[in-house]
């Protein structure tokens, strides 16, 4: 079970729209683009403690603060990373429920076997998965990603998937894992889902930013 992961919900109707991971008892890591329409913490809750999208007894936490990276630019989708501070701490959590982050930005993520975890749509225009799923992907170089997507890919990105395997709507903000550590945050992809590589925010470039905020 991947209980490090949380579901971001509208406070009004409790509908899932993005994902995140637990950094510690009061901070959640996710993507900045998740808050294009959710502007206030009061409009947001997180569901935690279950791999089910609709558990029998859902547990929610209110959010005190949304911190989007100050350099986030939706026009070119750069610095697509954000933190959420919860109003009250999560209940007693063993340390294994806190995600570990890869911190070395010099790591070359080329042809690596990685794991994407999420509740996203099972296909373009499909439905959200009822239980947390994971899929094995291969990373590609940024140069190959640029050629394939014919788009701006920044040095602070990672690319993985394609050929029918990868992210879809509802996976945004969720984790890309390598050897049980999180290396990426789901940022964007082209439609139809999973036919071309997905783009992720490379967490290692933001370690200092994260540590400064959650200390």
From TrEMBL:
<protein>
    <submittedName>
        <fullName>Chymotrypsin-like protease CTRL-1</fullName>
    </submittedName>
</protein>
<keyword id="KW-0645">Protease</keyword>
<dbReference type="Pfam" id="PF00089">
    <property type="entry name" value="Trypsin"/>
</dbReference>
<dbReference type="InterPro" id="IPR033116">
    <property type="entry name" value="TRYPSIN_SER"/>
</dbReference>
<dbReference type="InterPro" id="IPR001254">
    <property type="entry name" value="Trypsin_dom"/>
</dbReference>
<dbReference type="InterPro" id="IPR043504">
    <property type="entry name" value="Peptidase_S1_PA_chymotrypsin"/>
</dbReference>
<dbReference type="InterPro" id="IPR001314">
    <property type="entry name" value="Peptidase_S1A"/>
</dbReference>
<comment type="similarity">
    <text>Belongs to the peptidase S1 family.</text>
</comment>
<keyword id="KW-0378">Hydrolase</keyword>
<feature type="domain" description="Peptidase S1">
    <location>
        <begin position="1"/>
        <end position="215"/>
    </location>
</feature>
<dbReference type="InterPro" id="IPR050430">
    <property type="entry name" value="Peptidase_S1"/>
</dbReference>
<dbReference type="InterPro" id="IPR018114">
    <property type="entry name" value="TRYPSIN_HIS"/>
</dbReference>
<keyword id="KW-1015">Disulfide bond</keyword>
<dbReference type="InterPro" id="IPR009003">
    <property type="entry name" value="Peptidase_S1_PA"/>
</dbReference>
<keyword id="KW-0720">Serine protease</keyword>
